[in-house]
Design goal:
The complex is a heterodimer of chains A (227) and B (118).
Chain A: H1 16-27, H2 31-38, H3 42-49, H4 57-66, E1 84-91, H5 97-110, H6 115-136, E2 144-152, E3 155-162, H7 177-182, H8 188-197, E4 200-206, E5 210-218
Antiparallel strand pairs in A: 1-2, 2-3, 3-5, 4-5
Chain B: E1 2-7, E2 14-22, H1 27-38, E3 43-54, H2 56-69, E4 74-78, H3 82-90, E5 98-100, H4 103-117
Parallel strand pairs in B: 2-3, 3-4, 4-5
Antiparallel strand pairs in B: 1-2
Helix pairs in contact in B: 1-2
Classes of the chains: A alpha+beta (227), B alpha/beta (118).
């Protein structure tokens, strides 16, 4: 007789309570209203949300129906939660630099990013946008480009795409900022600052997407501790 | 962006009050105004208390003004917001640009420099 070994592979338990609270709030339904609809008490639902008890499959089915989500929604374990991405499409005009500045400031505030990191991010984005607006397209032609901000825990990445002249800022180096800055119309200073305040600057060019520049920075939360 | 120039009636020192974002959209405007002023004086104090942002384009204007005035009085920046100080620091220009906290302090810096060079 052979020995059978049971090997239990456990995945991370799904946090039903957290998901329930999130969807319920999104739908704008109170604990009481939901309880009434599916005939359970509000306090029971509250306990589920706090992770103090698990509902039966049957109850979970009724909750899913009431909140208009798929039946397996609360049981699915998404390994990678969807990222929060903010995408902005801008005309290549310098007057929009201030618009980007305000928007990025607010987005960082919402994500509780430390002021020092926000300042660095603003500087890098402003310099990257300035380069695209001034040099990517023929002078005077009205075109656009996109900025995509992705907020991950402890990390912000900013992706720029334009269909202009291929230009790789990663290859631009400044040895002496003071000397180079003195000359007018030197583009290198902006790139120097951008590289200095970000942790990673990556560039790719493809015929379909054009210039793709990705800046990444590790960030702290507003209290100053690493998120 | 708003730029206002005031003659301090003291040794031909002028105070330039700048307000707004000193980015690529407005650095040319500042440069034009300052170029006009440079015909009258080489002793300039810039009040940055209402400057909310500074980019490399703005820095470039400041450096060119600094160079042009250096031996005849110079350029002193006063009342810089934290974000502006931070950008100057990132650009490693803290020691290169003259910074002060008040008009009086800036006047002293300029007068000291003019006295020593004359």
């Amino acid at each position: 007789m052979g020995v059978t070994t049971f090997c239990e592979i456990r995945s991370r338990p799904v946090d039903i309570g957290k998901k329930l609270k999130e969807v319920r709030r999104l739908r704008g339904i109170s604990l009481r209203a939901l309880g009434k609809r599916i005939e359970v008490s509000a306090s029971f639902l509250s306990q589920v949300e706090q992770g103090k008890c698990r509902p039966s499959l049957e109850t979970l089915g009724r909750i899913s129906a009431a909140l208009e989500v798929k039946a397996d929604y609360f049981l699915r374990d998404e390994e990678k939660p969807a990222k929060e991405v903010l995408e902005i499409k801008l005309p290549n005009r310098l007057k929009y630099l201030s618009v980007v500045g305000s928007l990025v400031t607010e987005a960082c505030r919402v994500h509780q990013i430390h002021q020092r990191d926000v300042e660095d991010i603003l500087l890098a984005i402003d310099e990257a946008c300035t380069n695209i607006i001034k040099y990517a397209y023929d002078v005077g032609s009205l075109r656009d480009f996109t900025i995509r901000l992705t907020f991950d825990p402890g990390m912000v990445s900013i992706h720029f795409e334009d269909k202009g002249t291929p230009f790789n800022p990663v290859n631009v180096n400044l040895l002496n900022p003071e000397i180079d800055m003195g000359r007018r119309n030197v583009t290198g200073m902006g790139i120097y600052l951008m590289k200095k305040v970000m942790d990673k600057v990556e560039y790719q060019y493809s015929v379909e997407r054009g210039n793709c520049l990705t800046l990444t920075k590790k960030v702290s939360d507003s209290s100053g501790s690493q998120i | 962006m708003k730029i206002e120039t005031v003659d301090l009636n003291r040794n031909n020192i002028y105070l330039v009050k700048v307000a707004g974002r000193l980015d690529a959209a407005f650095s040319a405007q500042l440069e034009d105004e300052i170029d006009q002023l440079l015909e009258r004086t080489k002793k300039i104090i810039m009040d940055f208390s209402s400057v909310t942002y500074l980019s490399s384009s703005g820095l470039r204007v400041l450096l060119s003004v600094k160079r042009e005035t250096e031996n005849q009085g110079g350029l002193v920046l006063i009342n810089l917001a934290d974000i502006v100080k931070r950008i100057i620091h990132v650009a490693e220009l803290d020691d290169f640009l003259s910074l002060a906290d008040s008009v009086d302090e800036a006047i002293k810096i300029i007068e000291k420099k003019t006295a020593s060079s004359s």
